[in-house]
Design goal:
- The chain has a five-stranded parallel β-sheet, with helices on both faces.
- The N and C termini lie far apart (44 Å).
- By secondary structure, the protein is of the alpha/beta class.
- The protein has a single domain, classed as HUPs (Rossmann fold, 3-Layer(aba) Sandwich).
Length: 138
């Protein structure tokens, strides 16, 4: 399957998430590909973010993402990083939001070894899900 892919928790959808997904769709239309989101499962998020997360259960996050015009397909991501899913799907383009580098993305080599390329977006000003949760708890 050739696609534009991104991955993440998408626990409380933010404007930054929407911008990443919009860019995925823009690239998909340009290259006549589909957009696939590898969505972290609840167990994966708990390992990454702690026992108080996710805020929104997997099934609801999946439903929200599938309802967006920017998303063609959602696949579960039960690992802590998406390398195995990337090796299986071999995306043509893999998109991540700001703040990542080759050194902080273990999946980068898997994208390139499958013939794809990584597109890093600039940071998006605004609150992250973690910042929103912390603000609500305060």
């Amino acid at each position: 399957m050739s696609c534009v892919m991104t991955s993440g928790c998408f626990d409380i959808l933010t404007a930054a998430h929407c911008e990443i997904l919009r860019k995925c769709m823009e690239l998909a239309l340009e290259h006549r590909l589909t957009v696939v989101v590898a969505l972290n499962t609840d167990d994966s998020i708990r390992r990454l973010k702690g026992d108080s997360r996710p805020i929104v259960p997997y099934e609801q996050r999946e439903t929200i993402l599938k309802s967006l015009a920017y998303v063609d397909c959602v696949v579960p991501l039960d690992d802590d990083e998406p390398t195995d899913v990337i090796r299986r799907l071999k995306p043509t383009i893999y998109v991540k939001g700001g703040g990542y580098t080759r050194e902080t993305m273990p999946e980068w080599d898997a994208v390139e070894s499958g013939g794809g390329r990584v597109v890093l977006l600039e940071s998006f000003d605004g609150l992250s899900t973690t910042q929103i949760v912390e603000k609500c708890r305060a």
